[in-house]
Amino acid sequence: MKRESVMILLMALCVFGITCSKKPQKDYPIKPVAFTEVDITDSFWLPRMETNREVTIPFAFKKCEETGRIDNFAKAAGLLDGDFEGKRYNDSDVFKIMEGAAYSLSLKRDPELEEYMDDLVAKVDASQEKDGYLYTNRTIDPENPAPGAGEKRWSNLGSSHELYNVGHMYEAAVAYYQATGKRIFLDVALKNADLIAELFGPDGIKEFPGHQEIEIGLVKLFRVTGKEKYLDLAKFFLDVRGKKEYKKMFDENSDFSIYNQDWYLQAHKPVIEQSQAIGHAVRATYMYSGMADVAAMTGDTAYIKAIDRIWDDVVSKKLYITGGIGSRHEGEAFGDAYELPNKTAYNETCAAIGNVFWNFRLFLLHGEAKYLDVMERTLYNGLLSGISLSGDLFFYPNPLESDGKFKFNQGALSRKPWFDCACCPGNLVRFLPSLPGYIYAVKDQTLYVNLFTESEGKAIVAENSVNISQKTNYPWDGNIKIYLEPKKDAEFYVNVRIPGWARNEPVASDLYKFLQSYEEKVTIKVNSKEQAFDLENGFARLFRKWKKGDVIELGLPMPVRRVTASENVTTDQGKAALQRGPIVYCFEGVDNGGRVLNRLLPDELDFEVAFRPQLLGGINVLAAKDAAEDTQMVAVPYYAWSHRGIGEMSVWLTRKK
Fold first, then answer.
1. Do residues 551 and 583 both lie within one domain?
2. Does residue 594 carry a pLDDT above 90?
3. Catalytic residue ranges
């Protein structure tokens, strides 16, 4: 695996939980293998990552140019005349794309992209006010900032996104420093964080951001610098949230009345007392991720207990079969328990990404595969559906049913090239190049294999360098070969995740179940010899003295399964959905005579699996002869719907008349 410098290799470890500072500190007990240490080589994810690098990143930057988002920095810097363009939170879109570009540069050098980034960083640097403040809409016109920004600094934090924007800047700045070693962007971020740390806190401004994100960014600054004040500030923003003595009505003249509602902001009670997922789903998952980060760095178990309770609430009552979350259009929010409508499901793409962030952090805290199961379900379904195969069209909401006519906020009939609120494209840009960092992890004498994708990586296990690679056609079949090459023969554990779907358990609750149990067993071989194994927290735990050339063969049966929902989910009663491996399927009108919403899915209908290399980037299609309709029923992966025109689509179909 080629790397441009030792510096890049070492600093990349900061991205997922290994500190860059020299000071010993608490951290996640499980450490991910850094995304720069893993090369994905498969035909499923690699094309998407390459499309992100070649198409989506330049496309997103171009859209930021066309919509004035980048010019706003030049205007704030005095390099260009004109008014602020767009929404008060538009700075954050640029920062997210910059973060994704930095990750991409860490994986593959690109002088043209780096030159573009350097020019953009210079604009951001020049736009920063002398004391460190950075919020282009106020700097451009302090007397007339964008609607919702508040009349003066920090006066309307419920809706202003002043702290949200710079949180994304912190993440982008750390990523670019890690990728290139250039400090200018990081110094901008630190100067801004120093200003906020000086103004906010127990002895200063006792308020919190309406949209969580700065907490995650501050922890990343702490990892890079080792300065406790950034971690303390992240913890302060969490602890002040929902406390009655600090509560404040946000700008009463604001048109954004929803921002004044505690439930929407997860400010209905202190964070450590919360037990249900409530309010705006993206804000919520960012907050839960920030709580996990702070808990890992401080050892605060109250945070962990709270996010554990909330996770149970989501997985048992508020999770779509696609891994999507946030069922309500109003407030882009979680609904009540079991409120999981299909046609009007919101399931924002950003919320799916936040769900991945949160579940991966819970795995790093607890070492249980159930979090990775939710992460994988979200990754292959509710997240991936958010971007087209071409890389330049996006879904904002991700419903599970469409009549080809109904649409609501940001459009739900087909993917769009951009949005007025363009948070989702930028989030996809930054997530996709980081994907290799989710595949492997290490704790002491244990190597974890979390996801199955053809890849090559390197990990340090029990102070021994171990090359690890996978050969597989996952997710289309369940045969995986894992090759180990330790630098020297050594005893250690290899924990291989056995997905819940391979153990007759769609999720770790009774929210969904398979209609019938499947008896074919998961098999594991080491060097062609079948192994008995015990499951521990959802992992097959294999211990031996590993040698160069050892091979683990994992066999995960992949029958077509029917999934049914809890009787409490009224919208799915009498219905079933199809799943094979980690992939949830849907029926589109284009494959089924133009109509699917009134079709039946009889229990006795047998589906055959066929790989279609030329269809939708190469997919497994499920097909069955429907004698009652005298026609064929065809299902395709949910993530691939809406690539062939607007029409009917449904994940859930009625089982019988």
1. no
2. yes
3. 332, 423
